[in-house]
Design goal:
By secondary structure, the chain is α+β, with helices and mostly antiparallel strands. The chain has one domain (6-133): Roll (Thiol Ester Dehydrase, Chain A), CATH 3.10.129. Helix content is 23%, strand content 36%. The chain has helices at residues 25-42, 121-133; strands at 6-7, 52-62, 73-81, 85-94, 97-110, 115-116. Strands 1, 2, 3, 4, 5 and 6 form a 6-stranded antiparallel beta sheet that branches. The radius of gyration is 15 Å and the shape is globular.
Length: 134
């Protein structure tokens, strides 16, 4: 199963005074990308309260500015899968050119008990499948 890249719509509110997407907005784009990919990997009925994840760390490298009217797509890859955490990479593409790269460290998390958990088995299987397709 090849998951299509996440399509991002740049909104007027995403633009800063310099006329390009504000640096902080990319974190929202990465979040949208995770949601897009997890929909394919886990389905829509996943119990995020019990078998959730929490964000531990983000890194971003801005290569070229995106502007209003651009139609970027974001590719997500799996860099590493551990017992309780995993690392994702993001590549923001526009016209076959990479405009931004990022990484996130995420941890398995039980929201109701507010504690870290091992990555749920179905999520781990989905991440491994995605990793294999890279």
């Amino acid at each position: 199963m090849k998951i299509p890249f996440a399509k991002i719509t740049i909104r007027f509110r995403d633009i800063d005074v310099m006329g390009h997407v504000n640096n902080a907005v990319y974190l929202s784009y990465f979040e949208q990308t995770r949601i897009h990919y997890f929909k394919y990997l886990l389905g829509r009925d996943w119990d995020w309260q019990k078998d959730g994840i929490i964000l531990l760390k983000n890194e971003i490298e801005y290569l070229k500015p995106l502007k209003l009217g651009d139609d970027p797509e974001i590719e997500m890859k799996v860099d590493k899968i551990g017992t309780k955490s995993f690392i994702l990479s993001y590549f923001v593409w526009l016209n076959e050119e990479c405009y931004c790269k990022g990484k996130s460290v995420l941890v398995g998390y039980h929201n109701e008990d507010q504690c870290s958990i091992p990555i749920p088995e179905k999520m781990k299987e989905g991440l491994m499948l995605l990793q294999k397709e890279q």
